[in-house]
Amino acid sequence: METVAITSVLRGARAWTAGRPWLFDAVLGGGLTVFDVVTLAARDPAPGPAALALWGVQTVPLLWRRRRPLAVLAAMTVAFIAFEAADPVPGKTPGPYFLIFGVYAAARYAPAAASLAASAGALAGAVAVDLALGRSPAPRPDSLEPITATTFAVFLGVAWLLGHARRRIDADARELRDLNARLRAERERNARQAVAAERARIARDLHDVVAHHVSAIAVQARSTEDVVRDDPALGRAGVARIAETADTALIEMRRILGLLDAGRDDGGAEPSLRGLGRLVEAAEGAGCRVRADVDAETAALPQAVQVSAYRIVQEALTNVLKHAGPTDVRVALRTAGAALVVEVGNGPAVPGRAPVPGSGRGLVGLRERVAAFDGTLRTGPCPEGGWLVRAELPVEGVR
Length: 399
Fold this sequence. Notes:
Radius of gyration: 43 Å
Structural class: alpha+beta
Number of strands: 5
Low-confidence stretches: 135-146, 262-267
Order of helices and strands: HHHHHHHHHEHEEHEE
Mean pLDDT: 77
């Protein structure tokens, strides 16, 4: 339990200081300075203030080791040389133990070429002053820490290698964090695009269902109104067709709206070309005379193609009911090479026909569905009157 508690405390302290690098630098530079000065002042006899200042100033620059690593190394080198040259405390030499902190900081926080040159300069200066004072290769007998040029090179070389390795580790860690951030942003962007695409698809499906059935109901209601007084039985049949169309619309709306509930998976099957009969019956129930020609090969087409073809026929029939009313309609679906051709044409509008208002989304939805397959869509008047919708949906490579 104690080990767990200590580990937890250390992790908390590391997390707290991770965002406060200046605190660690203050503890390192200030702590080393205080420790060095206190231990040197405890000598007998006690050195004077100048000696204590020259000794302690060697580690003060570490307070700025992250912001000015090269300047810190230069300042520490100058302080080291000054203490060695002044020799204010007989038998006391700093050795490379202070400079290794400066070399490590330069290698970690400065570019490799600059830190290597600065470290080589610090090594040359330290070795030169040591040799000039006769402490290497033959150290003075009263020196407590005999130092040679080889010792300098080994300590400072290891310090530079460690600092450079840590710099590369930090750079790799930053690159991984940046990569993770980009991947996370891309994942969120893809999720938003998927949600937007799904909403657009649901909106198109909902528009197709509502527009088609409501248009059929409107046409059937007008037809029923015309005959209900003269032929009550035919009027009742018309009302029954209106009720049946409304029930079908409600069922399809519930299926589509069920897709919005993430916790449900009972939205029902997607429509397919096998359901074209219901569209034809709804159009005939509204008074249209429909002739449907559907190739048998279309039943084996991919589901995505069948759904889009179904919606195209549905929207085209909806437009017939809206703008032409009870008229002749021809629906044709056939495979032509690696594409499915969908054609819905109608005859001239009924004289005196008042079009049902539309939202303008139907044609936009048709274009989007066809564009999703890199297909082509042509709409326009027929030479003999009426209107024709023709779409080609490539099926090669679609699953």
